[in-house]
Amino acid sequence: MANPRTNFIARLDWVTIILFLVMVGFGWMNVFASSRNEGTGGSLFDFSQRYSKQFYYILTALVIAIFTLTIDGKVWSFFSFPIYIVTLLILPITIIIGKEINGARAWIFIGSFSIQPAEFTKFATALALAKILSAYNFVVQKPRNLMTIGAVLGIPMILILAQKDTGTALVFLVFVLVLFREGMSWVVLFVGGLAILLFVLTMLVPIPVLLAVISVIALGLTWLYQRNFKFFYIGFLSLGILFGLASLASTYLGQDWSLSRMFFLASFVAFLIWLTIILRKRHNPLLLILLTWFGAILFIFSVDFVFHEVLQEHQQSRINNILGLESDPLGRGYNLNQSKIAIGSGGFFGKGFMQGTQTSLNFVPEQSTDFIFCTVGEEWGFMGSLMVLGMFSGLILRLIFLAERQRSAFSRIYGYGVASILFFHFAINIGMTIGIVPVIGIPLPFFSSGGSSLWAFTLMLFIFLRLDTDRYQIVS
Amino acid sequence: MLNSNPNRKYVVGGIVLAVTLVYMLRLFYIQVIDKSYQLSSKNNSQLRVVEYPGRGMIFDRFGKPMVYNEAVFDLLVLPQQTKAFDTMDLCRILSVDLMEFRESMKKAREYSRYRQSAVVRQITPEQKAALNEKLFQFPGFSFQIRTQRKYPQSVAPHVLGYVGEVNQTDINADTYYQGGDYIGKSGLESEYEPYLRGRKGISYQLVDVHHRLQGNFENGRFDTIAQPGRKLTITIDAGLQEYGEKLLAHKKGSIVAIEPSTGEILAMVSSPGYDPNELVGRIRGKNFERLMNDSLMPLFNRATMSRYSPGSIFKIVQALIALQEGVIDEFYSVDCNKGIIGCHNHPNAHGLREGIMYSCNPYFYNVYRRIILQGKSTSQFQDSQIGLKTWYQMVCSFGLGQVLQTDLPGIKPGLIPDVAYYNKWYGANRWAFSTIFSNSIGQGEVETVPIQIANLAAIIANRGIYYVPHFVKSIEGVDSIPEKFRVPHHTAIDTKYFDVVADGMQMVVNQQGGTGSRAQVPGVIVCGKTGTVQNSGGKEDHSGFFAFAPKDRPRIAIVAYVESSGAGGVYAAPIASLMIEKYLNGTITQTDKELAILEYKQF
């Protein structure tokens, strides 16, 4: 075998390239199977069919891949900010001149050809983030740096949210993984995890019960630190008295306060009192417990508020659906229900290529785009699903491995960015089709039909592969 | 920056692996362990085809069809199979409003993109033929045959009721119904819905991956055949009904005729009415709105819902109660003293018969006084309470003051005041006979609805018993009509007292000086009583008359009301007379009387 230090072809990571080719090829088979009944007539290479369009998209993607490999890797580091800014500028233009599809203004039409600029914002943001984090002596923890990072991630999110493309906007949250790898505190991951847990509980459990439970847990934790019941009793008693006072006030003032409101008032007063006491006595562990406890209460109330006052009805429904709070199998729950039926009916070995009834008979919506995994599940069964899961996790882990072997921080961070974005799409898209996460409309990379996402993922991946070929160069 | 935290790659990798593992387990569960999804997928690839049965026909008592069905079509759409199509053309062929059509398409998509729903209803066979030729231009659309009600005589709209599409409440109440089904909304269509609707047939067809039919699922083991609705025969005499509607045309009023020996309702007219054919098909919505807003209230069934004071008709009830209580006998006489209560000019009544014949107000003031004040307590307040209590129970035994449990929904109870009623108004021991004496002549608080008065005529015709008035004569496949229509109800009055009253009613019609002479029918002894209902607001009185005939072995009991037309004898009595003649003899000899009625027009 040729020496990778001298031979460009040998320096390429063929594991990734082969995974890419297999996924794109297998993806096209599924797009073909799921969309073959959509139109009438038309040959394989007639541009009118979804699967034939997809074929041309794939050819274009291969051209993009080869072209990208020929570009010097330094270009991306050098031009990362200009690229980032240009993609940002296109977003508001899209809102103005774009056409509305499924409620989102995320598409630009050039003739009969459409493109979704937000897809390209992802790799541009990964480039910009890599550029910032790779600066010499950059420390993630510094407040000023955190603000910069927040702006780099927040601006595209807000612009994409303005297009009403919530799914794509959420993708940017995944950069938390990159930040974590680059030294961000564990606390962020911990708080994030706690927030997700509390969010789900707020939806599932009546709020007064939830408040009572977390208060008891917090008081229990004081026992862990103090090894006596003093704070447990004091806390319990003071909360009880304050709660009683709040309900008295409610009756006396002639207000019909709800249970959770009275609890909130009681906790707020208790929080102020305990805070002064603890600050005076400098019990740091207790302070942590107190802050976490009250932060959780605030979070629960704001989730409740956002859910009922801010989210639109269809968004509430999707969340309720996933949490099993709402069952509407012919209406809003239809997508999810049909998608589970399609995948579930595949069995162990599947129904065979082009033998799926659910996906080809148009029972599953968006069957060749966001719900393409249904076709995999139905026609290829558990074996096929396992293969796809394997390919995705294999690719992501391979990218992490490649990222770790980079000498250049920019390449490493960008590699993590690519891996994280792919991971988010993989986890959300497949999780959605099997009913583990809410229905969030983002494509399955390399599988879903559609040009923009395929080209954007191809570009993103091959930039990193090119960067990887430069790994023996001296870090400048 | 420096490569710090290199060990964190294991955390990130671990997260990826953890998610993959969870998804693997989940997929293993839904694909390999849980078999229910495979069953659901089978259901998806089956096509459920519904066959709608014809609704049961309705016949009159002589077997003449009153309601039958015509074939019409619904246009169905499967939103997910539609392509861009010429909406204008479709609307033009079916002559539907473009905006309405878009609205129903939107509703269909909202219901489900993957299930059929009807977007245009009641398409005539001609329109269907016109669209069928072009149907290939409209993928996703198909037809479904339905039936529509048709009324050959255009009579009895309030009795027959109408049929409409089910609403969400109906669907929630009975799982049989699905959106787009029809249901009886009012009248007998609603009451006998379970018999008339029949049963939908359902067949399960298999489709292959190319959506081609592959025959019945499991050889039709789960299929059900549509069962047509049952035939319903009702007690209405279509000819008599038609004649009654003709007589009441252009007048506000009602007629109810009952066969006393069975309680079968022979005719029930409420005027103004409407042509039941107007509330069918696509014109229904528009017509319904027009009828709803009509100030003459044609949708309102006056025969069962109009509450009137019974007026002098109520004197018959007072007489019977007084006889039963023993506070008067048939020879009881009273001078017509207009100082007590107003009256018209007539000779003094000698005996009860003449009291009824002259409809003497002072006479019945005294009769009622004797019922209420029986001297059972020294306090006149207490005494009035005791008297009213007895009186109330007896009046109620005539079926007054309560909803008659007939088979037409929406009947009003009227009002018979009891002790509690007056206590509420005036306070306990704050009222006495002097407060409530207006009831004696059927004014005051007493209120009745026409069907109750027709039943009252039947009670006197039967000398003290009645069968709940009803419309059902027979239902196909059902042995007998409900028990409640076959058991006699006894009033609190002994049979022996009725003959005196019947004599009085005969004199009302047939004796010189009687108030109801216009009710005479040549060759038939008619017994009747006028009832002039004071109309509030200084308007003309309502004219009421109730009667039965012949006197012996009566075959018809009837009530007629004409609103704002003056004394009971003027218009109500001749209408009753004509109805009786029509029913008993089949022909009308009193043509001048008929002409006078037909020429009288209120609007």
What does this protein look like?
The complex is a heterodimer of chains A (476) and B (603). With 476 residues, chain A is mainly α. Chain A has 19 helices and three strands. Chain A has a three-stranded antiparallel sheet, with helices on one face. The two termini of chain A are 29 Å apart. Chain B is α+β, with helices and mostly antiparallel strands. Chain B has two domains: 47-200 and 224-234, Alpha-Beta Complex (Penicillin-binding protein 2a (Domain 2)); 238-286 and 300-599, Beta-lactamase (3-Layer(aba) Sandwich), CATH 3.40.710.10. Chain B is built from 22 helices and 18 strands. Chain B has helices at residues 8-33, 36-44, 87-94, 98-111, 125-132, 157-160, 168-173, 187-191, 193-196, 238-247, 284-293, 302-305, 314-325, 351-358, 361-372, 380-396, 419-426, 433-436, 450-461, 498-510, 572-585, 591-599, and strands at residues 46-51, 58-59, 65-77, 117-123, 141-150, 163-165, 182-184, 201-207, 213-216, 232-234, 253-259, 264-271, 465-466, 472-475, 489-490, 527-533, 542-549, 556-562. Chains A and B meet through helix 9, helix 16, helix 17 and helix 18 of A and helix 1 and helix 2 of B.
Can I get a quick summary?
The complex is a heterodimer of chains A (476) and B (603). Chain A is mainly alpha-helical and 476 residues long. Chain A is built from 19 helices and 3 strands.
